[in-house]
Amino acid sequence: MIAKQTERTGPEQIFIVCRNTSNATISQNCPVYFEHDAVTDGNAVSQCSALIQGVSLFAGITDEKMVDDAYGLVQVYGYRTSCQVSGASAGLEVGLALLPEKSEDYMVETSSANAGPFTGVVLMETIAASASRSAVADYRVFIRAL
């Protein structure tokens, strides 16, 4: 675990080192889950898939692009200036909890059907109602995935 040194000019952030076991490159600023099968070292992560649906397996947001079978940083706590959020969630307000979309590499708004107790990622800026409903873009979030 890596805790970014506390400074008055920036937010506190905590990262963990993880290994990409998804058989594909995971983009920067994307949600990842801890692998629940074939785990060999306890730090294997993968992009969200239809098979990985439990929010309790949410690991965090990738800090940089991770090629397959390589190690990289995943942010698990703190303010983040860029996280992939679906434009289909246009018109959302600050403070709304976001949930990783299964089989995709972005976050979506939670609904009563899928929210449960998950509050790991919170939107920190308003997505205008006029935002493109098909585009995925970077938005500011606060992560609590410890």
Report on the architecture of this protein:
The termini are close together. It is built from no helices and ten strands. By secondary structure, it is an all-beta fold. A five-stranded mixed β-barrel has the order 2-4-3-5-6. The protein has one domain (2-144). Helix content is 0%, strand content 40%. The model has no long low-confidence stretch (mean pLDDT 79). The radius of gyration is 15 Å and the shape is globular.
Task: State the domain count.
Answer: 1
Biggest β-sheet: count, sense, barrel? 5 strands, mixed, barrel
| Bulk shape | globular
* Total helical elements: 0
**Which bin fits the share of residues in helices?**
under 10%
Total DSSP E strands? 10
On the 0 to 100 scale, the average pLDDT is: 79
Using the CA coordinates, give the radius of gyration: 15 Å
Intertermini distance = 10 Å
